[in-house]
Amino acid sequence: MNKTISVFAPATVSNIACGFDTFGFAIDGPGDVVKATIDMSFSGVKILKISGDDGRLPLDVNKNTAGIAVQAFLNKIGSRAGVILEIENKMPFASGLGSSAASAAAAVTAVNFLLEKPLKSMELLPFVIESETSIGGTAHADNAAPSLLGGFVLVRYLEPADVLNLPVPTGLYYAVVHPQVEINTSESRQALPGNIPLKTAIKHWANTAATVHALHTNNLEMLSNSLQDFVAEPVRSKSIPHYDQVKKSAIKSGALACNISGSGPSIFAFCDSFDKAKKVSEKMKSIYDDDEIACTVYYGKIRKNGAEIV
Ligand code: HSE
């Protein structure tokens, strides 16, 4: 009999202001679900169905992050198994919330379970990175790692993958607004400066280190004043409608910090209570409502678990 399992992998917020390609966290909100079936009547990967993507994601295994990740995983462990994937896309496309990483994380986790866990979760990360790199160009793991592993992570190295799980202060909540415009990550990476003045780099690594310290010491005030971005935000914010207004309104409504989620267009804020996160998300939404730009908001806690069976 064929074995089947479904795995959910969460949406993620990456960069987190000063941690370009380094910081990421999983959100207690939307994500992707991948149903995987082992079928020994063939060898390799087939994508049977994708739902919730308005027909935009490819069924071609070599062009779909879930298919690429699973094929790379099977090659690595030397398995001749046949895998059928059904992807339920429950997150917005090109939103800055890590949708391509989430479906790859869910797929590879599901197949690892079905094949009786030859690898640990952390060891699955290279396949998710590889899949994202094949479709997006530049390797980065700040969506892949938190979607796979959960929590707030620091990506130290890609090869070999070295990811640290950082502590999350108990009173920390996020708010995210996703205005329905699309931003292509690889184009948005190309727009970034190739060189950074030393003075700017010094401010960045000081703030990155202070962010880690703030998380370890539960210091929300230090977290608030460390989350600044002098590199990507000045360039990328120009492509996000009403970015400055949204950020000002979030801070005015009590957010500790507000910045771009990944390459955008989603914007995240950190708050010190659930009620503030709710209020901040409502304020951010009202700016898009006023301009009749459709948007979705999410708020809550950083999600502890990464990809898991549902
Ligand atoms: N760190 C990546 C970038 C995340 O900002 O390009 C993409 O979602």
How is the topology of this model organized?
Elements lengths: L2 E12 L8 E16 L5 E8 L13 H13 L4 E7 L10 H16 L6 H16 L7 H6 L2 E6 L4 E5 L6 E7 L5 H6 L7 H20 L2 H7 L6 H4 L6 H10 L4 E4 L6 E5 L2 H17 L4 E7 L6 E2 L1
Parallel strand pairs: 3-4
Antiparallel strand pairs: 1-2, 1-11, 2-4, 2-5, 5-6, 7-9, 7-10, 8-9
Helix pairs in contact: 1-2, 1-3, 2-3, 6-7, 9-10
The structure holds L-homoserine.
The site of L-homoserine has 12 residues, from α5.
Protein architecture, described:
The chain has 310 residues and is of the alpha+beta class. The protein has two domains: 3-166, Ribosomal Protein S5, domain 2 (2-Layer Sandwich), CATH 3.30.230; 173-300, GHMP kinase, C-terminal domain (Alpha-Beta Plaits, 2-Layer Sandwich), CATH 3.30.70. Helix content is 37%, strand content 25%. The strands form two sheets. Strands 1, 2, 3, 4, 5, 6 and 11 form a seven-stranded mixed sheet that branches. It is globular and about 60 Å long. The two termini are 20 Å apart. The model has no long low-confidence stretch (mean pLDDT 96). The structure holds L-homoserine. The site of L-homoserine has 12 residues, from α5.
Which structural class matches the secondary elements? alpha+beta
The CATH architecture classification of the largest domain is 2-Layer Sandwich
Mean pLDDT: 96
Rg (C-alpha, Å): 19 Å
**Count of beta strands:** 11
CATH fold assignment of the largest domain: Ribosomal Protein S5, domain 2
Distinct small molecules bound, one entry per kind:
L-homoserine
Shape: globular
Helix content: 25-40%
